[in-house]
Specification:
Length: about 30
């Protein structure tokens, strides 16, 4: 289960990094 969650988190992080940083700032979710 932990591996699945980690994979999903990594996927989301990659998508956020590939996306424009402006969208990230708009949501107010800063990468930890």
């Amino acid at each position: 289960m932990a591996v699945l969650i980690a994979t999903v988190l990594m996927e989301r992080f990659e998508r956020r990094c590939r996306l424009a940083p402006s969208a990230e700032t708009e949501r107010g979710a800063a990468p930890s």
